[in-house]
Each structure stands twice: as C-alpha cells, then as structure tokens.
C-alpha cells in the first residue's frame, strides 16, 4: 500500500502510537500544572489583612522588654518591632523554623524594621540541647554567636544523637575559625550555664513550654513559620505607619 493510500485509510498523518503518547504527555503536563497551582494557594503566605491571623490577647500587657537581656539580640535597638523566639537547638520544629528566622533577619532585621531576640529553652527530653545552647554562647564570646547558631540548626541531625556533642561542637568552632582551646574551656566549665537557665526561666515566667514559641511583640504565633510570621509583621508595621 502506498503512502497516500495509507494516509487515506488511517485518516491521520501521525501513527496511532504517537497520538496516544501525545495525549498522555498533555494530560501529565495539565496535571503537573494543576498541582503547582494548588500548592501555590496552599503554601502562599497569608495576606496581612487575612482573617485568622493571631492577635494579642485581650488586655494583654506589652512584652517586658527588660527580659531581653537574657536572650541574644540582633538588629537596631530602636526598631519599631521585636520578634522573639524561644527554642531548643535539638527540636526538629525549631530546625525547620530556623529558615524563617534567617529570612526574617535578611528581609526585616537588616532593614532596621525588626529586632530579633533568641531565647534558649532547652527541653529536658533533649540530652544535647543544653550543650548546643552552650556552644552557641561560647562561640558568641568570640563574636560568632549567629554563625554557630545557624551551623547548629543546619547540622542538627548530625549531632542530635551524639554521645560526645562537645567534640562535634568544637569541630564546628574550628571550622568557623575560632580559638579551639578557648572554646573548649568555655564548654567544659559550663561558663554560660546560668545565662541559659535565666533564659529558660523567662520562658517559664511567660508560660511558654513548647518550642519554637514565637512572638511578634506580644502576639504569640499559632503556626510558627515564614507565612504567618511575615503576615503578622507586615500587618503590625502597617498599623504603626
């Protein structure tokens, strides 16, 4: 059978197998597009005026700013807003929130709009949480608090179950260019134990027992993460303009 007759018989220039493949590809593309659009609407940050965003409790007092001396702060002292996080370095949810905290520093703290305060709240069920908090503060003695803070969260799964966390944290300190013997001495003497306990007492005073507990001024987030936090920050900043 000639090519012209074959085309007339089949009624199409394309072989049936190729037509079927094209249909499946088209369907797959359409499905992928629908998934992407759906994920966008599910994960997109809420708008600052969205209903359901947390607000301060009725007749809530301002956060007692004098307590911030027990945390570690970054940002302008006169920033119009303060975001405070109470966290445990070994807590997986805190590890996930660390990305949001890092983005907050990049987009709001560096712009002078927000001051960020990190409070240590090591939970008793996490054996390495206290040494991790100590490691961050010991690194802070050598002007590397936030570098160690980020490293601890980034490598959480590496040291979380370690039987010798001090050795691991000392390696991190060396990687960050810190003086090894000074760092080890700080860790072994538990130089900042009282500072960490004071931070934990602040959480108890405020009745914060879960980690991470995140407050935008005196507003406790119900779903700590970039979406809700950034929406509340934007709403509160707009109300003060």
Automatic annotation (TrEMBL):
Keywords, ordered alphabetically: Disulfide bond, Membrane, Oxidoreductase, Redox-active center, Signal, Transmembrane, Transmembrane helix
Transmembrane segments: 21-42
The Thioredoxin domain, residue ranges: 41-192
Family designation: Belongs to the thioredoxin family. DsbA subfamily.
Identification of the protein by name: Thioredoxin domain-containing protein
The organism of origin for this protein: Marinobacter suaedae
Lineage: Bacteria, Pseudomonadati, Pseudomonadota, Gammaproteobacteria, Pseudomonadales
């Amino acid at each position: 059978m000639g090519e012209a007759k074959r085309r007339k018989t089949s009624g199409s220039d394309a072989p049936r197998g190729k037509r079927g493949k094209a249909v499946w590809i088209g369907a797959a593309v359409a499905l992928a597009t629908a998934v992407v659009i759906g994920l966008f609407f599910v994960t997109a940050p809420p708008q600052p005026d969205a209903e359901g965003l947390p607000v301060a409790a009725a007749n809530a007092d301002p956060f007692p700013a004098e307590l911030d001396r027990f945390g570690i702060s970054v940002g302008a002292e006169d920033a119009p807003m303060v975001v405070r996080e109470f966290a445990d370095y070994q807590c997986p949810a805190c590890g996930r929130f660390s990305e949001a905290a890092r983005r907050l520093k990049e987009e709001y703290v560096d712009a002078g709009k927000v001051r960020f305060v990190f409070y240590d709240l090591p939970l008793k069920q996490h054996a390495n949480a206290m040494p991790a908090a100590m490691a961050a503060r010991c690194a802070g003695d050598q002007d590397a608090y936030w570098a160690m803070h980020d490293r601890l969260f980034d490598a959480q799964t590496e040291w979380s179950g370690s039987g010798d966390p001090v050795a691991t944290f000392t390696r991190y300190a060396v990687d960050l260019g810190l003086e090894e013997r000074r760092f080890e001495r700080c860790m072994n003497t538990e130089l900042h134990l009282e500072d960490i306990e004071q931070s934990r007492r602040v959480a108890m005073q405020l009745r914060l027992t879960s980690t991470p507990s995140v407050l935008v001024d005196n507003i406790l987030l119900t779903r700590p993460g970039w979406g809700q936090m950034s929406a509340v920050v934007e709403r509160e900043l707009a109300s003060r303009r």
